[in-house]
Amino acid sequence: MNHQLKIPIRRPFVLSGGGARGYAHIGVLKAFEEQHIFPAAIAATSAGSIAAAFICDGYTSDEVRAIFQQTKMGLSMQWKNMKSGFLSLKTVEKVLRQTLRHTTFESLPIPLYITATDYNTGRQAIFSSGEVIPAVLAASTIPMLFQPVVIAGIPYIDGGISGNLPIEPLSGKYEDIVGVHVNPPTPYDPSGSMLAAMDRTMHMAIQEPVLKNKQLCSLFIEPAALGQFGMFDFKRFDAIYNVGLEYAREVLQVEKGEMARAGNQLVK
């Protein structure tokens, strides 16, 4: 029997923040793996930076999925664990320290760029050297819910505030960028909860830079069905994962068809 050897394709990815909706990133990356497409580099923030840290550490999407399911990593970010007016990232930090095999950016097999927001200036900060875990925690620190993470004397908060689709580290260095945004716009629901209203308000406030950076992506993935999930729906891992997986599969099938048609036209 002749087995056709598939040559891996490498593409750069940008992964947005989005709380529990960040689980969808793992499903999206799984769909790309199925097509033998793997990250050449990842730029990410907030929830996207957690998934990206594992992928850039050399884990497959299936392995990352298992880690999230077994450790229940997101559950430490629920309201019931609030202490002193803040939520906790301690479980996230513990799992990262126990699981990551490479803990510095320089040692990662795949280049990783993590963005957070300088709480003094409000500007985007890009981490690509030094320790990975403090950068991930800084990028995931939602203001008013979490205490800022201090790195080298500077307080940092969620990178989504200064850019929730952080393509900046990849611009000029990589081509054919895949952008994955897990905060689709949804219709306003006046009967929604206060938490839902806060979630909606925050993402409306940071939407403009996302729309700008979307134009710089060769392929943009934003599953509309993620709108049914809230930022703190950590117990709905499988449903969120599957939305990302199925939507990315559909997008890739369309892209594959378009490439085939373009190739046929060139032959003619």
TrEMBL record:
It comes from the Bacteria. The active site is at S46 (nucleophile), D158 (proton acceptor). This is Patatin-like phospholipase family protein. A motif (GXGXXG) lies at residues 17-22. Residues 13-171 form the PNPLA domain. CDD domains: Pat_PNPLA6_PNPLA7_NTE1_like. A motif (DGA/G) lies at residues 158-160. The keyword Lipid metabolism applies. Keywords: Hydrolase, Lipid degradation, Lipid metabolism. The keyword Ribosomal protein does not apply.
